């Protein structure tokens, strides 16, 4: 199974090795240092970038260095990047500057963008559209239901993680979304309401989606894996 959004650089090496053998991991980065760590991990899909939470801490030159690293490394994905009005609204202008630069690069190099956008969902989708980005994944989507149609029409995807078992808004999104745009993620090793998110917990996501969609777990896996292969062109 694909884990379409996981912070591989934060896991202990032995634990991560087990996941690499059992899953296709899409490893996102948080800043320049973690981007370099992500590059050292073998057998995964690598995403490099600077997280909105880290933008205000970025040193002068970090953005240009991250862009050069992405160009040089020839990775298929930029992430985790985006906009955040919920947790770090005070740095929003600088976030937009960084996000815009990463989107221009994604368009130029035809890369997937792995997007973080709490309470900035519409801004992020509009920025993707204006930048003419071809492929994007908006992770842990809990945004407006009405925006799901635009996300689908633009050819983008959303990811659902194990929080769907307890997070009502995530459940509403999972039920309303066109199933052709739904992917799975763990967002590990993040902890949410006492849950340690990691790839094995995606089995709980599958069970919940089967319940919400009124299908079998096997049908859920077939759907989300087909979607992931389409996004990553595998």
From TrEMBL:
Binding-site residues, a divalent metal cation 2: 116, 139
* Keyword terms, alphabetized: Hydrolase, Metal-binding
Q: What is its EC number?
A: 3.1.21.-
Highest taxon above the source species: Archaea
Q: What class of enzyme is it?
A: hydrolase
Q: Which Pfam families match?
A: TatD_DNase
* InterPro entries per record: Metal_Hydrolase, TatD-like
Q: Name one GO molecular function term.
A: metal ion binding
The positions annotated for binding a divalent metal cation 1 are 5, 7, 80, 187
- Is Chloroplast set as a keyword in this record? no
Know the name of this protein?
Answer: Mg-dependent DNase
């Amino acid at each position: 199974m694909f884990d379409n959004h996981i912070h591989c650089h934060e896991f202990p090496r032995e634990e991560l090795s087990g996941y690499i053998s059992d899953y296709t991991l899409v490893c996102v980065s948080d800043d320049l240092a973690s981007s370099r760590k992500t590059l050292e991990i073998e057998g995964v899909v690598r995403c490099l970038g600077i997280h909105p939470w880290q933008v205000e801490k970025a040193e002068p030159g970090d953005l240009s260095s991250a862009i050069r690293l992405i160009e040089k490394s020839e990775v298929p994905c930029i992430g985790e990047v985006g906009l955040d009005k919920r947790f770090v609204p005070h740095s929003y202008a600088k976030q937009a500057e960084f996000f815009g630069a990463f989107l221009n690069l994604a368009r130029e190099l035809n890369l997937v963008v792995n997007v973080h956008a709490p309470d900035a969902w519409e801004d992020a989708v509009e920025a993707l559209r204006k930048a003419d980005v071809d492929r994007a994944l908006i992770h842990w989507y809990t945004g407006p239901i009405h925006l799901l149609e635009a996300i689908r029409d633009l050819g983008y995807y959303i990811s659902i993680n194990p929080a769907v078992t307890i997070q009502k808004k995530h459940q509403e999104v999972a039920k309303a979304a066109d199933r052709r745009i739904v992917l799975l993620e763990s967002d590990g090793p993040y902890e949410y309401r006492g849950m340690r998110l990691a790839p094995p917990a995606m089995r709980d996501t599958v069970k919940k989606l089967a319940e919400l969609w009124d299908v079998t777990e096997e049908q859920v896996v077939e759907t989300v894996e087909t979607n992931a292969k389409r996004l990553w062109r595998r």
